Amino acid sequence: MKTTIRVNAAKRRALAVCVAAFCSAAVSDLSASVLAPPELSARVDAPPLQVLQGPRTPTATITNCDDSGTGSLRDALAAAVDGDFIDLAQLNCSTISLTTGSLILGANDVALVGPADGKLTIDASGSPGYAVIYDVGGGTLHLRNMTLTGGSKYRSGNTAHGGCVYAFANLDMGNVIVDGCSATANGGSALGGGVFAGGQLYMKGSTVTHSHTRATGYASGGGVYALGGLTMLYSSVSRSYCYSVTSTPGFGGGVFARGPALIMGSTVSDSNAIRMGGVALADNGGIPATIINSTISGNTALEIGGIFVRQQLNLYNSTIAFNNSSIWTDGASHYFAAGLYITVAGEMDSTIISNNVNSAAPFPTADLTGAAGAGFNGGNNNVGFCGTACPTDTSHEDPGLHALQDNGGPTRTHIPTPGPTWDVFGGTNVLNLQWEQRGPGFPRQSVGDFPEIGAVQVNSDIIFANGFN
Fold first, then answer.
1. N or C: which end of the chain has fewer CB within 10 A?
2. Is the pTM for the entire model greater than 0.85?
3. Is 438 a member of any domain?
4. What are the distances in angstroms from CA 80 to CA 88, 136, 198?
5. Residue 407 in 3-state DSSP?
6. Per residue in 441-459, pLDDT tens?
C-alpha cells in the first residue's frame, strides 16, 4: 500500500472537472467534435473547432498517384468547392511525388482522407522551395491518414509559413505524420517548420518530427506554429528546431502557440531553439493553458529548455524532465529554469518536474522558476528544485526516471523507478482521468493502488515488457 500525502484534497476535487468520458473518446474516435471539450470548459475557454465527423460521401475520388492530370489529387484540389470530401483511401499506389510545386487549395472546409492504414505518403522533395499542401481557403482543412514529407518552403524578403502544411485558417489533423519539413526566410521570418495554422490547430494521434524554421528575422515553431489556439491529443512533436541567423531569437523549437492551449496524452521531445526549446505558449487574452497526462523531455535552449507559458497554466499528472539550458538570469531579477518558466499563478497536481539542468544555475537542477508573484496551487507533486512557489506538500526526491522510450501507447514516456523511494510519493487524480498518458489499457488508478505522480502509472498489477512493475 502506498503512502499518499493529501493536502486540501477535498477542496481541489470540488474544483476539479470530470474528463473521464472525454479521455476515452479522444483515443477511440478520431472525429471528436470540438477544440475544447465541454468537460474541460472550466479549465480551457476556447471557441469550438468543427473537426471531421463520421461517414461522409466522397465528392471526388483520387485514382492515381500522378503529380497532375485526370484522377490526380492536384486536379481534384484545383476543382474543389466548399465542403468537398476528397477520397484517397482506394489508391493502389503508396506515394504521390510532387514535381510541380505545392498542392494549392482555395475552397473552404475541404477534407482529404487517406487509407485507414495510413500508408499513403505525399512527398514534395521533388519541388524544392515549396510546401506539400498550401491552403488559402477559410474554415477548416481536414487531413486524415497520411504522411507528408519533403516540404521546404522558401521565401526571399517575405515570411515563410508552413514547411509542409500551410492553413490560412483552421487545421484538423488525425493520424497524420509530418516528417522532414522546413520553412526558410531570407530577409523575413519563418513560422512553422512542419505545420502552420493561421487559426486553430487540432492534432490527434499525429506526429510532427525532423522539421525546422530558419530565418534572418524571427524564427518560431520549428515543428508546429498555431496562431489561434492549439489542441494536441495523443500526439508527438520531436527532433525539431528553429534558428535565426541574426541576433533575432528563435522561439519554440517544438511548438509555438498563441491563444487557448490544451496538450493531453502527448510528448514534446528532443527539440531546440535559442529560447523555449520544447514548448512556447504565448498569451492571447489571458485564456489559461492546460497540460494533462503529457511528457516534455530532452529539449534544449539557451534560455528555458522545456516550457515557457505566458498565460495561466493548469498542469496535471505530467512529467517535465531532462530539459537543458544555459542562461540562468537576464540580470534584472528574472531567473530561467531549464524545465518550466511561468509568468502568472496556476495549478499543479500530481506532476513530476525533475532532472532539468541549467548549466549556469547555482543548483544541480533548475526545474521550475517564474516571474514575481507566479507560483502554483495544488498538491501531491514532485519537483526537484522549486524556484517559485510550489504547493507545501511538494516532494523533492529524484524519481529515477528511465529513458524516454516506447513503453506502450501512442507516445514515448518515462517510467519512474519502482520501489520504496518512489512508493512514498502518493499522487492524486483530481480530474478523474480514466487513463494515464499511454491511453486505453493503462489506467490512471488500478484497484488497490493510489494514483501516482507523473504522466504514467506504475501499477503493481501490470508487468511491462522492459521488466519494470
1. N
2. yes
3. no
4. 14, 13, 21
5. coil
6. 999 987 777 888 999 998 6
Domain residue limits at 277: 22-383
When divided into structural domains, the chain yields a total of 1
Question: In a 3-state reduction of DSSP, which class is residue 325?
Answer: strand
The one-letter amino acid at 388: T
Q: What is the DSSP string of 332-389?
A: SS-B--SSEEESS-EEEES-EEE--EETTSSSS---EEESTT-BEEEE--EES-BSSB
Grid cell for residue 395: 516532494
Which CATH number belongs to the domain containing residue 352 in this structure? 2.160.20
Helix (H) or strand (E) holding 60, with range, is: strand 60-61
The three grid cell numbers given for residue 180, joined into one nine-digit string: 522532414
DSSP 270: S
Q: How far is the C-alpha of 213 from the C-alpha of 183, rounded, in Å?
A: 5
Give Cβ neighbours of residue 253 (< 8 Å, ≥ 6 apart): 222, 223, 240, 241, 242, 271, 272, 273, 276, 277, 278, 299, 300, 301
Mean pLDDT of the residues in the chain: 86
Cα separation, 401 vs 403, in Å, equals 7
> In angstroms, rounded to a whole number, what is the distance separating the alpha carbons of residues 358 and 58?
53
Does residue 269 lie within any of the structural domains? yes
